[in-house]
Amino acid sequence: MAAESGGARPRVVILGAGFGGLSAAKALRDAACDVLVIDRRNYHLFQPLLYQVATAALSPAEIASPIRSILSRQKNARVLMARVSGIDVAGKMVHLQDGRDEPFDTLVVATGARHAYFGHDDWATFAPGLKKIDDATDIRRRILLAFERAEATDDDAERKALLTFVVIGGGATGVEMAGAIAEVAHWALADEFRVIDPTQARIILVEAGPRLLPAFPENLSEHARRSLEKLGVEVHLGRAVERCDASGIVCECVRSQRNDRNVGRRPPQGPNCARCL
Ligand SMILES: Cc1cc2nc3c(=O)[nH]c(=O)nc-3n(C[C@H](O)[C@H](O)[C@H](O)COP(=O)(O)OP(=O)(O)OC[C@H]3O[C@@H](n4cnc5c(N)ncnc54)[C@H](O)[C@@H]3O)c2cc1C
Q1: Is 176 a catalytic residue?
Q2: Residue 273 pLDDT more than 80?
């Protein structure tokens, strides 16, 4: 049944209990209003450490905190676990997927962002994004299973492929992921296998732009590149991935302005082309 608005105190409904939604709720702690925080999950996710879950350094529970506990002392705040399916702005009503409605006087929409494939949505099957716990545990499963399957196979080419990890995108998440995979391969798992040598795993970071971490000052980009290379990551700049499927990736050589779409053949342009990775 729909809750009723129209009491003496204004009703503020906040959609999403990420950093944005929780900050808004906390800022209203002493305000003369009733706050309702709606999230499809019952926990707040600390996204900056997702890559640690993806590389088995942390467990999911270590980066998830119950929204109810976070707001338990805030008397004017109530938490509702539900998925929002629509908003009627004129009617001041939030529609929930389970059929209920919640009225509001003021609405804060803080439902976050999804990762983008820059027009290549078909890559999702082969290259999962990293926004949710499920994404992180899926990546972790893929990474750890790759080592297990490499240990089990008798086929050298398959083993080599299984021990090659490609991270697309040299922003903060890509840099963190590549570094963390290198640490897993070159340190954490170094002595755990008998057939394969995990330290021989290739970790390749591909970035279309001329430097890593484009949002940061240039000297930090260079520092990040050197640090990754020390960890054993191959950093390839100026290369845009144009295809990604079960057999691997194909890059366009941005630096040489070459856009060779004959993806089946080894290109002739030498080591500057990412297709020769
Ligand atoms: C891997 C990774 C690493 C990062 N590292 C850093 C870093 O080092 N430093 C930094 O400053 N930032 C970092 N960020 C960015 C930072 O985490 C985000 O900017 C921040 O989490 C965004 O907060 P938000 O509240 O806008 O959205 P979110 O945290 O995404 O929260 C949105 C909430 O809305 C809920 N929601 C969405 N849709 C619905 C719906 N239909 N119904 C109900 N609820 C819904 C979700 O369940 C979620 O709880 C990182 C992000 C990622 C993914």
Answers
A1: yes
A2: no
Domain 121-276 has CATH 3.40.50.300: no
- Which CATH number describes the domain made up of 11-109? 3.50.50.60
88: three-class secondary structure by DSSP: strand
- For residue range 133-173, list pLDDT tens digits in order: 999 999 999 999 999 999 999 999 999 999 999 999 999 99
Phi, psi of 243 (to 5 degrees): -145, 145
Residue 63 alpha carbon to ligand 1 centre in Å: 12
Domain ranges of the chain: 11-109, 121-276
Q: Residues 82, 99: contact at Cβ < 8 Å?
A: no
pTM of the full predicted structure? 0.86
Q: Contacts for 111-119 with beta carbons within 8 Å, 24 or more apart?
A: 111/15, 111/16, 111/18, 111/84, 112/16, 112/18, 112/20
Ligand 1 atom nearest to CA at 22: 25
